[in-house]
Amino acid sequence: MLLYNGKNSDGDNSDPNLPKGTYSVGQVLIDAANPEKVLERSDSYILKPTLPHEQTGQYKSGTVFGEGLVYFKKKWFLYYGTADSFIGVAVTEVKL
């Protein structure tokens, strides 16, 4: 699995679910035996700017930039930059 950062278009082909120009995080699953082959890709972002400090700064539409993913004590921690000013962390438990 690869997490990637992307920017919503500023044009007519932008995702209507995000403000134009918003930076968010997506995910793609790549074949381990053939890294050129994409097995699955998220249809939408997995993290988007929602908090006030994520919706200000250099990019007025908002910015979250995934920087590191850590598995610790049955939880995933995604560390991310917010609007070029702060660092955030999103946490989820692993459900079996």
Which features does this protein show?
96 residues, mainly beta, 3-stranded antiparallel sheet, 6 strands, globular
Rg result: 14 Å
- Estimate the helix proportion, in percent: under 10%
Question: How would you characterize the largest beta sheet?
Answer: 3 strands, antiparallel
Quick one: overall form? globular
Number of domains: 1
**Category by helix and strand content:** mainly beta
Strand arrangement within the widest β-sheet reads 1-2-3
| Number of DSSP strand runs | 6
Query: How many angstroms does the end-to-end distance come to?
Result: 18 Å
- Contiguous uncertain segments of 5+ residues: none
* Average residue pLDDT: 92
Give a written overview of the molecule.
- The chain is mainly beta.
- The protein has one domain.
- The protein contains no helices and 6 strands.
- It has strands spanning 2-7, 23-30, 38-41, 64-72, 75-82, 86-93.
- The strands form 2 sheets. It has a 3-stranded antiparallel beta sheet, with no helix packed on it. The chain has a 3-stranded antiparallel beta sheet with strand order 4-5-6, with no helix packed on it.
- β2 (23-30) and β3 form a beta hairpin.
- The protein is globular.
